[in-house]
Design brief:
This protein has two helices and 35 strands. With about 650 residues, the protein is mostly beta strands. This is Outer membrane beta-barrel family protein.
Length: about 650
C-alpha cells in the first residue's frame, strides 16, 4: 500500500478487491478503512487471481478475493469472537455468526462491530519552481489526522433446496460506519529567498457516516451429474454517505501576529444505486469438453451533492468555487463464452468476453455533460501441460479493463488544508491491459511465474500545482499516462525446516516503466528494477500451542513520478487451541514500526517529499469460540455485481 492507501499486487495497481467474490464498494483510503473494520478471525483465506479468464468481469488488472468464513456444517453451528488491540489508540473487534442447515434449508446470519481509533501523520516538504527552474515558494507542513471508527456489519440469508437439482436463495446485508476525523495542520511558508515569511494552521473537525445496504436473489439448476449447471443472480446495492466538514484556518505573520482567518464549512451528500442481473451456464460434454457462457447487465446511478460555505463572517455564504453537484449514470452489458478441453497431459481454455459501456457524467452546477460509449472485446486463453507427475508448465494471457472509480470521475474537492485538496477528473479514460504469464510448478508446491503486461492510458495518482485566487495550491487527482509496462518473476518456495517448523517463502522481482506527460512533465520509460520478499514461519509447539513469525522487505521503487523508499516489517504471533473448540491468540504487527511509506514526487515545477506514519505497530489479543456440529457440506457462491462495487470511493 502506498501513502494514499492504494493497493498493488506484484507491482501492478488498479486491482479488483472482492469480499466473498463480490467487489468491495471502495478504493484507496475508503477501501482501507473498510477492511480495517473486518475482524481477522472472520477471514478464511485470501485468493490471488493474477490473470482472470473471460468468465470473470473484465475490470481490474488482477483480483484479490478475501473469503470470509461461512459455516456449512449440518445442524446448528456458530462462533463468537472478540479482540482487543492497542498501539497508540484502542481497537476492538467483535463478531457473532450462526448457521442452521438441514436437508431442505440453510439459514445463516452474522453480525460484527468494530471500534477502532488510529491516526495518519503526514509530514510534507513541498517546493515550487517557475518555468525557468527558479525557486518560488515552499510549504513545510505537519498534518495529524485521527479517526474513530464505529463500524457495524450485518448479513443474513437463506438457501432453499427445492429438490436435488434446484436451489434458490437470498441474502441481505447492511454496513454502517461512523467516524469523526479530527485533523490538525501546521505549516511554515518560505518565500523565494528560502526564508520564513508566514505560517498558518488549519483545524478539521468533521462528522462522517457511510452506509451500505445490499440484497441478492440467486437460483441454481443442476443440469446433470457431470457438474453442468445454470446459475442466475439478481443484485441491488445502495451506498450513501453524509459528511459535515468544518475547516478553521488562521494565518500568522512571521512575528506570530494573527493576520487573517477563514472558516470553511462543507455539507456533502452522496447516494449510489446499483442494479445487476447475470446468468451463467456451465455445460460438461463427452471426452472432457466443457462449455461456459453467460450474460450480464448492470445499471448504476451516483448522485453527489457537495456544498461549501464561507462562514468567516459568522453567516455562512455559499462558496460557488467549491460547491458542485455531480450525477453519474452507467450501463454495462456483457456477454462471454469459454471452451475448454482436457487430455491426459494437456489442457486448454479459450474465452472471449464482450462488454458494451454507456456512461453520462453531468455537473449540475456548470451544466456540463460528458458522455462516453464504447464496446470492447476481452480475449483470454490458458494452455497447461504436465511434463510428468511432478512437473507442470502453464501459459496464459488475457485482456483487461480498469474503469475509473466513481469518485475518480467526480470533480468534487476534498480539502486537507487551504493549499491542498483532492478532486476527481471527469475526463479520465479507462485503462486497458494485456497480461501474459508463464508458470512452472514442481510437485504443485514450488512455483515460478514469468509475467509481462502492457497498459494503455494507465490511471495514475498525480499532483498538479496550480494558482487559485493568487495562491499556489496542489491538486491531488488522477490522470492517464500514455502507457505502463511490467516485467516480473514471481517465486514461491515452501520449506519444511523441521517437523515442527514450516517456512513459506515468496519473492517478486520486477521492472516497471511509465511513459506520459502530466503537469508539463514528460517521462519516457521511467522506472526501475525492484523486488520484495516475504517469509511466513509457522511453529508447532505442542499441547495446542502454535506460533508464527512473518517478515517482509520491499526495495526502493520508482512508480511514474514517485520514488518510494524501501521499507520492511516483522510480525509475531502465538495461539492456543482448547478442547472446547475455542482459540486464544496474541499478535504484534510491525514490532519495529518500520513499514510506513516515505517517498519523493518530482515534476518540472514541483518537488514534494513526504513521510506517512500510521499506527502499524499494534498488539492484539483475540478469543474465538465455535459451537455446534461438525458435519460438512459444500458452500455456494452467489452474487452478480462483482465488477461494480470496487469503483466507489477515493481510488
Amino acid at each position: 500500500m502506498d501513502g494514499s492507501d492504494n493497493i498493488s499486487l506484484r507491482g501492478k495497481g488498479n486491482l479488483l478487491v472482492q469480499i466473498d467474490g463480490k467487489n468491495t464498494p471502495m478504493t484507496g483510503t475508503d477501501l482501507a478503512n473498510y477492511l480495517r473494520g473486518i475482524p481477522s478471525s472472520s477471514v478464511e483465506k485470501v485468493e490471488f487471481i493474477t490473470n482472470p479468464s473471460s468468465k470473470y468481469d473484465a475490470a481490474g488488472t488482477s483480483i484479490i478475493n478475501i473469503k470470509l468464513k461461512k459455516d456449512q456444517r449440518k445442524g446448528t453451528n456458530g462462533s463468537l469472537s472478540t479482540s482487543l488491540g492497542t498501539g497508540k489508540y484502542i481497537k476492538n473487534n467483535n463478531n457473532f455468526s450462526i448457521n442452521h442447515r438441514n436437508k431442505k434449508v440453510n439459514i445463516f446470519a452474522n453480525y460484527g462491530f468494530a471500534y477502532r481509533e488510529f491516526y495518519n501523520h503526514l509530514v510534507l516538504d513541498r517546493n515550487f519552481y517557475d518555468n525557468n527552474g527558479n525557486f518560488e515558494k515552499a510549504y513545510l507542513q505537519d498534518n495529524y489526522l485521527k479517526f474513530n471508527f464505529r463500524n457495524h456489519i450485518a448479513k443474513a440469508g437463506m438457501d432453499y433446496y427445492i429438490n436435488d437439482n434446484n436451489i434458490i436463495g437470498f441474502s441481505a446485508g447492511f454496513v454502517s460506519n461512523r467516524f469523526d476525523p479530527r485533523g490538525d495542520n501546521s505549516s511554515l511558508v518560505l518565500g523565494s529567498n528560502q526564508l520564513p515569511e508566514s505560517t498558518f494552521t488549519t483545524q478539521n473537525r468533521s462528522k462522517d457516516h457511510w452506509k451500505n445496504a445490499s440484497f441478492n436473489l440467486n437460483y441454481k439448476y443442476k443440469i446433470d451429474s457431470l457438474g453442468s449447471e445454470l446459475t442466475t443472480d439478481l443484485d441491488y446495492i445502495n451506498y450513501s454517505n453524509t459528511s459535515l466538514q468544518n475547516f478553521d484556518t488562521k494565518n500568522y505573520a512571521i512575528n506570530g501576529a494573527l493576520s487573517s482567518f477563514d472558516i470553511l464549512k462543507g455539507d456533502i451528500n452522496g447516494d449510489l444505486n446499483i442494479y445487476s442481473l447475470k446468468s451463467d451456464l456451465s455445460k460438461h460434454l463427452k471426452n472432457n469438453w466443457k462449455i461456459e457462457s453467460g450474460i450480464k447487465t448492470s445499471f448504476v446511478k451516483a448522485d453527489n451533492d457537495m456544498q461549501f460555505f464561507d462562514a468567516t463572517s459568522g453567516i455562512p455564504i455559499v462558496d460557488q468555487n467549491k460547491t458542485n453537484h455531480f450525477i453519474y449514470e452507467e450501463n454495462i452489458n456483457a456477454l462471454y463464452g469459454n471452451v475448454s478441453k482436457k487430455w491426459d497431459k494437456f489442457s486448454t481454455t479459450f474465452g472471449l468476453r464482450a462488454e458494451n459501456t454507456n456512461v453520462t457524467g453531468t455537473q449540475i452546477t456548470t451544466n456540463q455533460v460528458n458522455k462516453k460509449n464504447y464496446t470492447q472485446l476481452f480475449p483470454s486463453a490458458v494452455f497447461s501441460y504436465d511434463l510428468n507427475d511432478q512437473n507442470n508448465i502453464e501459459l496464459n494471457f488475457s485482456r483487461r479493463i480498469t474503469r475509473p472509480s466513481y469518485n475518480q470521475l467526480n470533480p468534487f474537492k476534498f480539502f486537507l488544508d487551504p493549499t491542498t485538496y483532492r478532486a476527481g477528473n471527469p475526463d479520465l479514460n479507462p485503462q486497458t491491459t494485456m497480461n501474459y504469464e508463464f508458470t512452472y510448478s514442481l510437485k504443485n508446491k514450488y512455483f515460478a511465474t514469468l509475467s509481462y503486461s502492457k497498459t494503455s492510458d494507465n490511471i495514475t495518482d498525480v499532483l498538479k500545482p496550480t494558482v487559485e485566487n493568487g495562491n499556489i495550491v496542489v491538486v491531488q487527482t488522477n490522470d492517464n499516462l500514455s502507457s505502463a509496462s511490467y516485467l516480473g518473476l514471481y517465486l514461491i518456495a515452501p520449506v519444511k525446516v523441521a517437523k515442527w517448523w514450516d517456512m513459506n517463502n515468496s519473492a517478486n522481482f520486477y521492472y516497471g516503466s511509465y511513459t506520459g506527460n502530466i503537469s508539463d512533465t514528460y517521462i519516457k520509460n521511467q522506472g526501475n528494477f525492484t523486488f520484495n520478499v516475504n517469509s511466513i514461519n509457522s511453529f508447532k509447539l505442542g499441547n495446542g500451542f502454535t506460533a508464527e513469525l512473518t517478515g517482509n522487505y520491499r526495495a526502493r521503487e520508482v512508480y511514474a513520478y514517485m520514488n518510494l523508499k524501501p521499507n520492511w516489517y516483522l510480525n509475531i504471533g502465538a495461539q492456543k487451541k482448547f478442547k472446547n473448540n475455542s482459540t486464544l491468540k496474541f499478535a504484534i504487527n510491525d514490532i519495529f514500526f518500520t513499514s510506513n511509506p516515505e517517498a519523493k514526487n518530482v515534476y518540472s515545477n514541483y518537488i514534494e517529499n513526504f513521510v506517512v506514519r500510521r499506527e502499524t505497530r499494534v498488539a492484539t489479543l483475540s478469543y474465538t469460540y465455535n459451537f455446534g456440529s461438525s458435519k460438512n457440506a459444500q458452500p455456494r457462491k452467489t452474487g452478480g455485481a462483482d465488477d461494480l462495487k470496487q469503483r466507489i470511493g477515493n481510488g
